[in-house]
Amino acid sequence: MNRVSAPPSRPSRRGPGRATALAASLLLATGGLAVTGPSPADAAADPVAVTVNANAGLATVPDTALGVNHAIWDSQLGTAETSDLLKAAGVRMMRYPGGSYADIYHWRDHTAPGGYVAPNTDFDTFMAAARRVGAQPMIIANYGTGTPAEAADWVRYANVTKGYGAKWWTVGNENYGNGHYGSAWEADDHPDKSASQYARLVVDYADAMKAVDPTIKVGAVLTMPGNWPDGITAGSDPGPWNRTVLSIAGPKVDFVDVHWYPGGTAAESLARTAHIDEAAHLLRDQLARYAGPNAARIGISFTELNVGTGQNTQPGALFLADAYSDLLENGVFTVQWWNVHNGIGTVTDVAGQTDYGDFGLLSSGTCTADGTVCEPPLNTPFAPYHALSMMNLFARPGDQLVRAATDEPLVTAHAVRRADGDLAVLLVNKDPANARPVTIDYAGFTPSGAAPTTYSLTNGASGVVTGQSGSAGSRTLPAYSLTTLVLRPSSPVTAHPAPPGQPTASGVTDRSATISWSPAPPKGAPIAKYEVYRQNGTVSEQLGETAGTSFTVDNLVPGTRYTLNVLTRDTAGKVSWSSSPVTFTTAGPADSGCTVRLTTASDWGNGWVGNVEIVNNGANPVDGWTLTFTWPTGWQQVSSGWSATWTQTGRTVTVAATDDNRRIAAGGSTTAGFVGAYSGPNVPPTGFVLNGTPCSVG
């Protein structure tokens, strides 16, 4: 969040935060390009179909999952009342000393030159609060106005002198906001403000801090794919921020730290949780490409989230539950709301409720400057606090998140499988005006006939309501609500086999991949075999089985992303939970009559110039050609193009030759270019087809 020089009433988002809105306008400026797609459907009268597949395992909920931010300008940071409220909501990680303040904060004398420091907010007070909550600390070392030596001294004080065992340390906060890309809100006293310099100093910080305590984890700041300044290269950096930082500091860091403020109206913020899967995919791809050997060890934390509208009313609550669930499904080890207390901002009415423009979970009890409107009493929980409490009821440490989906964008679903055999399903109705009936279908789990335990948070409610009602198969979700169902299995849990270890993929070609895993530990009857499944949406498609611990999957489609799980089956016929997933993308055909190379000429954060080179690998010339490819997402688009006729229908792009370049000689090539726009993560296409033939990808 922004650096402020007085007790903040609200954090104002910087100019680049408007990138998503600019992208939305770009998508409309197609410059005459033929772009067609389905018309928006009217709200269906039929029930929303929800599908939960308990055999399609995702990530396991970590003990650091539910997090929040604490700030040194918050006088309530160390109070028992605040700590007890956070503990009751299930908070297990707390970040300090608070956003951009971290880059002006000096821990030794507890000062933040240019900013306000409230009394009783020093590091020891914070640690006492963290212990009262039962949360692990995440500490931000001062990059902007500090030094590696200062950070190392802080580690020494925390873990050697005081014995706090503080494990998680991030170097700086939003350091791409230091003016390097043209917009400046983050303090940075270094003459060189490049991404390269930040990365070089992260190495120095990590070396100095780990020399004091080798057991700590050090993180570097990255930016959210699809959000400013993602994709932009500035100065002499070899590439955009994420690529540059990872290429230099990747071997030295243990995790990367990302913030996300989707902005826009309440409806736009709630819809943009659909970006999370692709953003997580791009982050992991960037780690694999640029962070050096064993990059899979690097974790991902999301330490600031909030919405642009309805920060302390139901939009904030719905977004919190949906985003936390999505991020945890993608293996993020902590998600942290901005903020515990923040103060009154612009007062509006949101869905019939007074929204104070307060980014805090808890009321600060403050009033507008003219005193005409005041918040509820200090520490009154706002709607996002209740959503965090709902997350604590839904996803507990050790639960395995499993695949869930719906056929209606305004209703989203998440699910977890529990060690005691229960299944919990979280349903989010983002429709502010209409209740939504749902039907729920289960795979890999048979619910009992008993009424499920229910938890509900409705618009304007003062807390989560607990009950036991209805059936496992259908329900009506109130407008603008969160509902969690906890279901018992139809039969008692018996000795099912254990799942195998985390699968890995190797030898990935255009048509095959070898999946390997460590064997399941002995449990109950002997293991008969392992079964390999593809997650095809919420459907598990069996690809094969083996008595061993590796399996080569054949007949795959070139240029396609696959997510696979492995299950154990014992000689009694019982099946385990699924393993964690492994995701990989097949290559283009190794031997093809054509090769396509897609390159980026320039990128400005919500649009880009791309070039497509088509190479004829055959012995004969190509006389007339049409190239097709499909964008991985619905928020990517070709706005205009040249050296070909460009059209887009839905997500599929067709590039047709002109009279000038219709002939490609044997061994020759031709190039066409386009301007693309994106309003979310810009995921490159992975498959290209020329005149019906899949091409190699260069």
UniProtKB/TrEMBL annotation:
Coiled coil: none annotated. SMART domains: CBD_II (SM00637), FN3 (SM00060). InterPro entries: CBD2 (IPR001919), CBM2/CBM3_carb-bd_dom_sf (IPR008965), CBM2_carb-bd_dom_sf (IPR012291), FN3_dom (IPR003961), FN3_sf (IPR036116), GH (IPR017853), Glyco_hydro_b (IPR013780), Ig-like_fold (IPR013783). Residues 491-520 are annotated as: Disordered. Residues 503-517 have a biased composition (Polar residues). Pfam families: CBM_2, fn3. The keyword Signal applies. Residues 587-698 form the CBM2 domain. Residues 1-34 form the signal peptide. Keywords: Carbohydrate metabolism, Glycosidase, Hydrolase, Polysaccharide degradation, Signal. It comes from the Bacteria. Transmembrane segments: none annotated. GO terms for biological process: polysaccharide catabolic process. One of its GO terms (molecular function) is hydrolase activity, hydrolyzing O-glycosyl compounds. Residues 499-589 form the Fibronectin type-III domain. This is Alpha-L-arabinofuranosidase. It comes from Micromonospora wenchangensis.
